[in-house]
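Example with several molecule types.
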Amino acid sequence: MNTFGHLFRITTWGESHGGAVGVVIDGCPPQIDVDISVIQFELDRRRPGQSHLTTPRQESDVVEILSGVFEGKTLGTPISMLVWNKDARPAAYEHLKDLYRPSHADFTYQKKYGIRNWQGGGRASARETIGRVAAGAIAKQILRENAETEVLAYVKQVHTLAAEVDTGTVTLEQIEASPVRCPDPIAGPKMAERIDQARRDQDSLGGIIESVTRNVPVGLGEPVFDKLKADLAKAMMSLPATMGFQIGSGFEGITMTGSEHNDPFYMEKYNESERVRTRTNNSGGTQGGISNGENIVFQVAFKPTATIGKPQQTVDMHGNEVTLEASGRHDPCVLVRAPAIVEAMAALVLTDHLLRQRSKS
Amino acid sequence: MNTFGHLFRITTWGESHGGAVGVVIDGCPPQIDVDISVIQFELDRRRPGQSHLTTPRQESDVVEILSGVFEGKTLGTPISMLVWNKDARPAAYEHLKDLYRPSHADFTYQKKYGIRNWQGGGRASARETIGRVAAGAIAKQILRENAETEVLAYVKQVHTLAAEVDTGTVTLEQIEASPVRCPDPIAGPKMAERIDQARRDQDSLGGIIESVTRNVPVGLGEPVFDKLKADLAKAMMSLPATMGFQIGSGFEGITMTGSEHNDPFYMEKYNESERVRTRTNNSGGTQGGISNGENIVFQVAFKPTATIGKPQQTVDMHGNEVTLEASGRHDPCVLVRAPAIVEAMAALVLTDHLLRQRSKS
Amino acid sequence: MNTFGHLFRITTWGESHGGAVGVVIDGCPPQIDVDISVIQFELDRRRPGQSHLTTPRQESDVVEILSGVFEGKTLGTPISMLVWNKDARPAAYEHLKDLYRPSHADFTYQKKYGIRNWQGGGRASARETIGRVAAGAIAKQILRENAETEVLAYVKQVHTLAAEVDTGTVTLEQIEASPVRCPDPIAGPKMAERIDQARRDQDSLGGIIESVTRNVPVGLGEPVFDKLKADLAKAMMSLPATMGFQIGSGFEGITMTGSEHNDPFYMEKYNESERVRTRTNNSGGTQGGISNGENIVFQVAFKPTATIGKPQQTVDMHGNEVTLEASGRHDPCVLVRAPAIVEAMAALVLTDHLLRQRSKS
Amino acid sequence: MNTFGHLFRITTWGESHGGAVGVVIDGCPPQIDVDISVIQFELDRRRPGQSHLTTPRQESDVVEILSGVFEGKTLGTPISMLVWNKDARPAAYEHLKDLYRPSHADFTYQKKYGIRNWQGGGRASARETIGRVAAGAIAKQILRENAETEVLAYVKQVHTLAAEVDTGTVTLEQIEASPVRCPDPIAGPKMAERIDQARRDQDSLGGIIESVTRNVPVGLGEPVFDKLKADLAKAMMSLPATMGFQIGSGFEGITMTGSEHNDPFYMEKYNESERVRTRTNNSGGTQGGISNGENIVFQVAFKPTATIGKPQQTVDMHGNEVTLEASGRHDPCVLVRAPAIVEAMAALVLTDHLLRQRSKS
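Resulting C-alpha cells for the full complex:
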C-alpha cells in the first residue's frame, strides 16, 4: 500500500494535482534534531524547474511540519509534513481525460480502480516522491548522528554515456556542482548536451543512478526476507520509472568465476584495534543480506521518461485507436532530479534496519 | 524477518543442519485443491543431487503436510509443511567452525547475532528455500484455478553463455528436458560443458534466470510501495546469491529514447469483444506498478556460488589471517536448481496481489 | 504505533497543541461516495463545547480533505484529512511544564521518550481521536453501501446511574436528542444532573459506552489472533481513558452455567428462504471470533476523567512532591463525546474485516 | 490472521485433530537460554487431564524444537516448535459432522470458509493455544533475564465464587499448589466442589482469570494504537471463550469520581536513589498506554465452556432443527488450565514491547 518500513515507517499521500502531497513518519526515535532548512534543501534538489535541463513546472514546494517536532527536536510521535500543490492546471490535462498515454499508468489505474484523477499523473506522478524525500532527510540525520553514515547518489549513465566515479571519494558538493548531477567532469557536460538534444527532438532519455553509502554499521539486515539488498531493491523498484536494481557486481558479475568474484577477508588496523575487511567489494557491502561494513554500492535503471513531445499511437477509454499529439509537459530526463530520491529511499531503508538491529541488543 | 506477503503470507524456518526446515502459509483461501505430489515435484526440481551437474548432497526431501488441509482441500487455516534434515554431518563442517568463508554469511551472522550454527550455512543456506518452494506450489495452484496464470523460469545465461528463448511459447517441458534447465537446444549443452569444466577447475559460475508469467490478470499491484515490480524485486533479492533484478527492458532499456521505449497501445479482438494491448512489452507487463495484462518478464542475476574448491585467503574469529583450503561441498552452478525457486517466489507475489485486488471489489 | 488496520488502514498524527491533527486512510476501496458534511457531522458529535455539559474549549474543528477523493468519490489512493489546531494556548499549560499530573500520561511519556510536548496532552489528548472519527465516517459509508450495516453507540452508564436501552431498536436520533447521549428518557436527565453536580464539585465522572451493530454480514473475523472480538477490544482499549471491554454477556455471563449461557440455534424464515439464527445473544454477535449475523453488542468502561479542579498530591520532574491546584480545563464527563469515537473505531474494525473477507472469495 | 506481535512475533498453526500443532517464533533475540524442560513445564500446566477436574483427554503433549536453538541458546533465527496430535479419534466426532453445536464456532467457520475440519474444534479448539504457551515460555525467559519481570495468572472467580488474592505477594507455588489454580485457601476448595457439581450436572462453569506482572520496566507501550493495555486486550480476547478484559479498576472503577480514582504520585527511596511511584494503582500499571512501573493487573472473563453433557436445541447444515444429545468430551471448567495461557499471552505482549522500546534507545 502506501506505507513503507517496519520500525521507521513512512506513509505518503497526495495526487499530483490534488490539494497537497505529504508524508507521515511513524516510529522516529525521540530527541533527533530537525532542521527544516535541511529538509527543504533535499526537496529543492528533487524539485522540477531547477535548471533549463528539467521540467518547466514552477513550484516552490515549501515544506510544512505539522506535528511530531517540538522546539527543534522529534517527540517520538508521528511527524506529519506536507507541501501544497500550487501549480495545478486541470485544463492542461483536459485533452488527456479519456486517453491512455503509452507507458504511463493511466490504463492500469483505470482498470484497477475504475476511476482516476486524470488531472495529472495522480499517485503515479513523480510528485508523489516529495513525501519520501522529506522523510529521507530526517532518516539521513539519524544515520549521521548514529555513526556518521552518509548516503550519496548521482547520475552514473545517461542514454549511452557512462561516467567514471570513485565511490570511495565522491562528495555531495561534486554531485551538486554538476547541472546533471554527474560528478564526472568529462561525462557530465556531454550528458547535458545529449539531454538538450533530446528536448529539441521532443524525445526523452533514461539512465542509471548509482548510490554509495559509507560508514555503514555491520549487522544491518533481517534475513531471510528483509535482507538489506531485498529492502533496498524494493525501495528502488517502488519508484516511478525504475526498471532494474543491482548491487555490487550486479549483472556484470556473472561473467566472473567464483574464485574471481569472492571477496577475500583480511584484518585492517583500525584506531587502536583491528577490524575485518574485504579486499574487493563485489558483494556491494552485504553478505547473507546483512551489511558487512564495506560501502554499500548499488545501481538503479530508470527508463526514458514516458512523457514525450512526439506524436504516439494509443487508444482511448472507449476503445478507439487514436494519435496522441503530446502527452504533457516535457521533461527530457528526470534522472537529473533522481539522486535526492534514491538517497532518501536508501536512507529510509538503512534507518529502519538500524532501529531493528538495536532492538536485539 | 522470516515472513513474506500481506494476505497470502509465508513464514519459513529451519537451519540447513538443524532438525528440519519448513514453512507456514497463512491466509490461503479455503477449498483450494492440494495435491502433495505436485508439491513434491517442485521440491524435487529444487533438490541438490539431481544430476552430476549439481551438488552431491543426497537428500530425499520428502514433504509432510501437518495442518490446514482436509480431505485434499485447504481449510483456510494455516498450512504447515516440513522436510526433515537427513544429511546432517556436523563433522564435515568442524574445520569451518571458527572461519569466515569469503562471500558467505559467516562473518555477518556472527557479528549480527553473536552466535551462529556453524554446521552448514544456517539460515543463509539454499536449503532455506525449501519452504518457499513448497508454498509456491500452492500459490501456483491458486493462480491456475483463478485465470490459468502460469509462471515459468529457466536459465537464460551461464557465465558468458546466453540463451535465446521465446517468452511467448517456452514450456515447462522444454525447461525440464534440459539438464541445465535452459530451453535453448544450442546454448543448453554448451552451458553443461562450461559447468563441468568449472567443477574440474574447483571453481563456480553464476548466471541469469529469466521468468515469464502468462495470462496475468490486469490490475495486480498496490502503489506506491507495493508495486508489483517492487514486490517481485524484493522477492528475488531475498534469495541467496542474487545480485540484481530487472523487469522488461531493464538495464538495457536505458539506451533507447522515450519514443523507442514507450509501448504503443492498440485494440485487440478477444473472444467476442476487444481488449487493450501493447505492441511492444518494454514495460515487462507492468505500468505504474500494476499489471497491464501483458506477459510479466523479468531477470535475476545470481553471482557465482561462493563455495569453491580452490584455496582462498580469509580470516578467523580470532583475527588471524588464514588460508581456507576448501569451503565445503562443491556445487559449481546452483543456477540449475534456481528456476523452481524463482517461479515459487513469483507465484507467491502474484497470489498475494491477487487476493489484495479481490478485497477491493 | 500510529497505524491501525490491515487492509483498511488509518494512520493518525498530531499533538493536541501542535499545528494540526489528522489522518491518512490507506486501502479504502475506490468509488465510495464521500460527503464532507457527513464527516463534519461526526466530528461535531465528538467536539468539545457542544453544550454546558462538555469542556468549554472552543474549536470549530473544520475538516479538510487533501487527497484521495475526486469529484465526490474515493480514488482508491490514500485519503488525507486534517483539522487545524486553532485554540492552542501554551501559556495555559506553562505551570504544568514540570509536573506529572496524576493518572495522566505526562510521567510515562517523559520516561519513554525523554521529551514531551507539555503544551496540552500531546498525543495522549482526546484530540488525537479526531483522525479516528473522520476516518470512521468513511468506514461507516462503506458498511452502509455493503449491507446497510449500522454502528451505534451511546452512554449506558454514568457513575452509578445505569440506563435501559433496547439494542434492537435504538436509533441515532434518540441518542443525539439527549444532551448526554443516553437514549433512556428517565436515566438521561438524571445523568445530566449528576454531571452538573460533578462540575460544581470540581470533580469528574466515568461510565460505560455501549455499542450495537445491526445487519452484520456473517463471516467477519480472522482467527486466531485477529478475531473480531480481539480487534474490537484492541480498538476500544487504544482509546484514552478506557479501562475495560466486554462483549455479549461479558463479565456478568460468568455467573451463568453453560446450559444457560449457550445460544441455541434455530431456523428463521428470511425473505423467500431461511437463515440460521440464535434465540439468545450471549455471544454478542461472534462465535469463534467470527460474526454470526446477530447484533454485535459490546461495552467499554471509561474511567472518570483524570483532569479535575480539586487540588491533588503529585511530584515534579525534579523529584519534588508538590500540590497541583488544578490540572487544566475541566470537562467533568468526556463520556458524552465518546459515542462518536466508539462508533468510529467499531466501523473501522468491521470495514477492515469486510475487505479481508472479500479477499477470500 | 495467525501471527501475533510486531518484533517478537509468533505464528501458530494446527487443528485439534490434524497431524500436529505448533508455533514459529520470529524475532527472538539471539543468545537467550532455552531449557526445553521449562517449556514442557508450561505445556503441562495447560494440558487437559491433569486432575479429575479437567477433561479426560489423555495427551502427553511433548514439545519438540526443530530450529532456531543451538547448543542451548537461541540463534536469532526462527524457532519452530511442535507437538504431535496423538489422541485423534475422528469417529468420536462423526455424529457432529453436520451439526452446529451451540456457542461453538462450527456455524461461523462453515459460513466463512465453506469447509471445516469437523473432527474436533479445528482451529477454534483450545488445543490451538499449545503454540502460544510454548512461545510464551521463551518470552518469560527474556523478561526474566532483562529485569526479573515475572508474569503470574490464577483463577480469581468461578461462577459466583470469588477469591481474595494479594497481587503484591502471590507466588507461582501457591497457584500450582491448588488443583483449581486459585491461591485463596478458602475459595479454592469451594471452587473445586462447585466444578465437581457442574460435572455431575452435565453442565459447565466460567469465571475470571486475574494476572499480575511485577518488576515491569517503565516505558513499554506504543501509543496511540499499540498501547500496552490495547495489546493486552487483544491478546486476551484472541483466546477461545473470552468475553471481557479489564485493567486496573476496570468496570468497577466507574463508580468512583476522578478525585477518588486518580493515582497520586510520590517519591520512593529506591536503592541509593529515588523513583516515582503511585500510592494507589487504579491505573493497573499503565498510563497513556505506557507502563509506569507499577504492577500490571488485569482480569479476563471466560464464559462457561460451550461443551456440555445436557441435550440442547440446535440446527444442522441442511436447515433441520435437531436435538444435540452431548456435544463432546466434557470439561466442566477450562478455567483451571487457563492461567498458563494467560501468562503466556501477557509475556508475549510484554516481550514484544520490550524489544520495541529498545529500538528507540
